Amino acid sequence: MEAAKNDSDLAKRFRAGDIRALARAISLVERRDPSVRALEEAPSGKVVAAPVIGFTGAPGTGKSTLVDALVALLRRQGKSVAVIATDPNSPFTGGAILGDRIRMQRHALDPKVFIRSMGARGHLGGLSLACREAIRLLVAFGFDQVILETVGVGQSELEVAAVADTTVVVMTPNLGDGVQMIKAGILEIADIFVVNKADLDGHQRVVMELRGMLSLNAPRAHGAGVPKAWKPPIIPTVAARQEGIEELWAAIEAHRMHLESSGRARELAEKRLRDETAEVVAELAREQALLALGEDAGLTETLLKDGTPYRAAEEILRGIGSATRKRRPEAAMKPTSEPG
Amino acid sequence: MEAAKNDSDLAKRFRAGDIRALARAISLVERRDPSVRALEEAPSGKVVAAPVIGFTGAPGTGKSTLVDALVALLRRQGKSVAVIATDPNSPFTGGAILGDRIRMQRHALDPKVFIRSMGARGHLGGLSLACREAIRLLVAFGFDQVILETVGVGQSELEVAAVADTTVVVMTPNLGDGVQMIKAGILEIADIFVVNKADLDGHQRVVMELRGMLSLNAPRAHGAGVPKAWKPPIIPTVAARQEGIEELWAAIEAHRMHLESSGRARELAEKRLRDETAEVVAELAREQALLALGEDAGLTETLLKDGTPYRAAEEILRGIGSATRKRRPEAAMKPTSEPG
């Protein structure tokens, strides 16, 4: 089989820096195929605080233009950049793909820029897992910088913050939803605010509103020796004219230094690995449950008798450990994935 | 403790038909508290094909007005109705709550109408589980009809279809997104199409476009004895003037009869219970994983050494069955929930 043949030397091609092998590995990860997980381990064997910058904000705030401008800046510095555009809310990737194409035109001939959109296939929570796997692949592949951009709204903002080291929240003067977003708990997830389209009327008002909100939420005084908490800066930009992008990059670097000097970087990396482990456990347990429900007619009987899932769920859970122990670990990791 | 005291006779009050006990039980379910699960069992002990109608569609199509008109119709027939307005995409329930208030004014004095909005607290997938639990509570409480209305867009459409017996997709002539939505796979989930605001120009065009799409997707001919597949009807309505609501209700009833006569109702009920069981297993496994990660320092060491979650996840999964077996089943069902 051609596909199997290709996959057998996927690891070799990936390690040799073949960008098509990277793209293929991400496709496998999206399908929740565990076969490329060995590639995710960083070559050093140490936890890499993957330098992930997350961009979020309402549609129409110019996130893509901003990311594009930042990519151009990083390229001038000689850095390689991978961008993942994700819409966790939508099973349809049309918008993201369109965005890719437009940006691909600009960076099409640059092998040091990788742009990929990821839809929300499969289970809820699946994207978040696929996204984290893809990020590990990108870091292991050797990209200097990974940028995660959300296309969706709502829940996706929180998703980005859960994955990114530095979360940039993008606002504009003309959407009028500034205050609403602030009320909605965006303050807690934003490490940096960008007021894009700062050439429009009203941008000063948005900056002032934000400043007011931030001062109300000001961190309390710390004792001696305790690192000061981060105060999110507010950066005005005009992404379409590349204005403010260097200031934005300086803020991102300052935040990264803050994370490292305060010990927060390591804390975050640990917390993320723990959360992700729980999600992987949930995913594997879900797969084993579906398997058990398909094989054991008694479980369906229990379900229909009860009219609720709880007793059957308990029964399955009690069996999961022994099923996992019986199989080889690698076999147990295999989800019931559809073919290539 | 007042709260504990109240909860101890919650079951009694729920069974006596106290609507505040129902509201409290749904709050507990939203918090993933398993203490009210016994209440979800239907009094008969048999699987109830909960008569759930799901409404979905883009914002601005008039879903709430349509649901409101349908509630009024059902009340004239003497039926009791529960409405759950859900926004799985948003952690913010502001919009839904506003909608509730407006509708509450109309139905505030009617004890046979229950309206409740549910946000997306907690884990992804959590809403869907909470939603199903809430529906079971509403059915067990004795409501004749449950209506599920989504506020969000995207993924939520698929969520509604996974929970509802009859999925109504609402469109309008003036949004111009008709064709896009159809392309996006809405055909597969719609049991009934409503073209609302049918007094606006262009509604005939939308109806014709839909008809064309549906005929392309026409089910193939069946042999003798095989029940004919359902062909989604297209119902024009002007919800704000109560026009077309009786036709909509007739279509919903026809669909329900189709489900029952074809045996599909029972199939769907079984499939839903199975899917939900797998989700409950995943939820419980996630909770046990977080517990294990908090207690076992060796797991964190493994995580940091690997830089990936997979080996630790396998280890946890192997332990889950025995941990579940050791505890009493009820204790194992308890999530690590915050206090009320």
Q: How would you characterize this protein structure?
A:
2 copies of one chain form a homodimer. Chain A is an alpha/beta fold. The first copy, chain A, folds into 3 domains: 1-40, no CATH class; 47-262, 3-Layer(aba) Sandwich (Rossmann fold), CATH 3.40.50.300; 271-333, no CATH class. Helix content of chain A is 54%, strand content 11%. Chain A has a 7-stranded parallel sheet, with helices on both faces. In chain A, helix 3 runs antiparallel to helix 6 (126-141), helix 8 (178-189) packs across helix 9 and helix 11 crosses helix 13. Chain A starts with a helix and ends in a 7-residue tail after the last helix. The model of chain A is unreliable at 89-101, 220-226 and 328-340 (pLDDT under 50). Chains A and B meet through helix 8, helix 11, helix 12, helix 13 and helix 14 of A and helix 8, helix 11, helix 12, helix 13 and helix 14 of B.
Strand order of the largest sheet of chain A: 3-2-4-1-5-6-7
- Strand coverage percent of chain A: 5-15%
Overall 3D shape of chain A = globular
**In the CATH hierarchy, what is the class of the largest domain in chain A?**
Alpha Beta
Class by alpha and beta content of chain A: alpha/beta
Summed up, the helix count of chain A is 14
Question: What's the average pLDDT of chain A?
Answer: 78
Oligomer: homodimer
Tell me the span between the first and last alpha carbons of chain A.
11 Å
Shape-level CATH architecture of the largest domain in chain A: 3-Layer(aba) Sandwich
Task: Name its key features.
alpha/beta; homodimer; Rossmann fold; 3 domains; disordered C terminus; 14 helices; 340 residues; 11% strand
